[in-house]
Amino acid sequence: MKELIIIVYKIDQSLSASVVDHILDNIRALGLSDDEEIKENYIIKEIYIPSDETDVKVIYPVPKYSTSPEINELVSEITEKIKNDPTNQLKPHWDKIVRELKLRKINDSQ
Question: For residue 17, what are the CA distances in angstroms to 22, 25, 60?
Answer without folding.
Answer: 9, 12, 29
